[in-house]
Amino acid sequence: MAQLPLFEPGESVLTDDERGRVAYTPRFVAELLARAWFAELRTAVSWQAERRWMYDREVDVPRLTAHFDLTPGEPDGRVPGAVRQAAESVGARTAVPFNSVGLNLYRDGRDSVAAHNDHLDELVPGFPIVLVSLGATRRMTIRAKEPHRRVLHVDLESGSLLVMSYATQLHYTHGVPKTRAPVGERISLAFRVRPAGGASVGVYRRAREEGDSP
Known about the structure:
Blueprint: E1 12-17, E2 20-25, H1 31-44, E3 48-54, E4 57-69, H2 81-94, E5 100-106, E6 113-116, E7 129-135, E8 138-144, E9 151-156, E10 161-164, H3 168-171, E11 172-176, E12 186-192, H4 201-209
Antiparallel strand pairs: 1-2, 2-10, 3-4, 4-5, 5-12, 6-11, 7-10, 7-12, 8-9, 8-11
């Protein structure tokens, strides 16, 4: 099981108890570098428009998606340099052997991801989910599943890092709601440790069912 640092410089701990730990770090990536990564990913990634069944009909997923396998020893020539650099930075910060990254492109305030938790059978127990945000700021809502449903709101700024422990997927949902406020494009990179052989298959199944992490 991964042991995360108790505290990192600039980190704000949103919750840390038996139901899990959520920590937010603004300016994890320097502003100029965050802009460069955004520009590269916006044009270099083959963004996919997905559709899924919901309420007995097929609907458009309200954002564009992509996925890259980061399994060591299996180099993927399609992986953009910005993704590799982000993976190195996140790995150095957390000491977690991430082998998968899911990307979302939010084109405007109409794009969103519904409240959900990750499918536990597609995660290696004990390892966190780590999210890097680039571009426009969007608000994430994290809501406890149990009574006295605690609600956390965090504005994910460009260059920020959000770390959600494995336990949070048992006790919380997370999502990025739509907004009527004028907002620019945002790209998120969600790093995970997936079971061997499941790093690239499960993410597409989950995207069709519920959507990737925000």
